[in-house]
Amino acid sequence: MGLGDDRVFITLLNLSAEEVTAPHMTSIAGDARCIQLDDQCFDIVFSNSVIEHVGGYPDQLQMAKEICRVGKRYFVQTPNRYFPIEPHFLFPFFQFLPVNIRMKLLQNFNLGWFPRTPDEQKARAIIEDIHLLNRDQFVALFPGARLYEEKVLGITKSLIVYGGWGEKRL
Predict the structure, then answer these.
(1) How far is CA 140 from the centre of its chain?
(2) Which pTM was predicted?
């Protein structure tokens, strides 16, 4: 079974729908914390580096519940909070600096995926949009899931939980 197979359909969920031209693909607008679709409507839900952007831990928990509700199986990936290089700003230990110092750095320098942002409110909004999770927090969002740790030089770079295959649970 492949993407050209008539039995394979892909649905993209983003804050706004995007135009897609590939066959068997559709794009819908929605909020990952409140997905307006039926229970178990997807064979597999895949999320890559999204859960750290939906808000604080209560919001992340709601997204996790929605993933488990709409998907028969799932793979969810997030960067590890304790990896030494913060993956959005590409700055060593950035995630552990006080918010005001992170803001000042962003106000004065291009950092990772973000251009220099002199406006204080905009810089704060960018900084506060990202809520990295550690291993225990992430695993707690998905009771019964399996965990895979992606490592670089022996250090866990990202965390992946997956579930729904009837395997032994954490």
Answers:
(1) 15
(2) 0.89
Give the type of residue at 2. Answer: G
pLDDT of residue 167: 56
The one-letter amino acid code at 29 reads: A
- Quick one: which of 134, 128, 140, 127 has its CA closest to 158? 134
Instruction: Kindly indicate the confidence band of residue 170, based on its pLDDT and cuts at 50, 70 and 90.
Output: very low
Domain ranges of the chain: 31-84+131-170, 89-129
Gyration radius of the chain's alpha carbons = 18
Average pLDDT, rounded, for the chain: 93
Which CATH code fits 31-84+131-170?
3.40.50.150
Cα separation, 5 vs 116, whole angstroms: 45
For residue 4, name the pLDDT band (cuts at 50, 70, 90): low
Structure tokens at 81: 């909070």
Q: Give the whole-angstrom CA distance, residue 149 versus residue 155.
A: 9
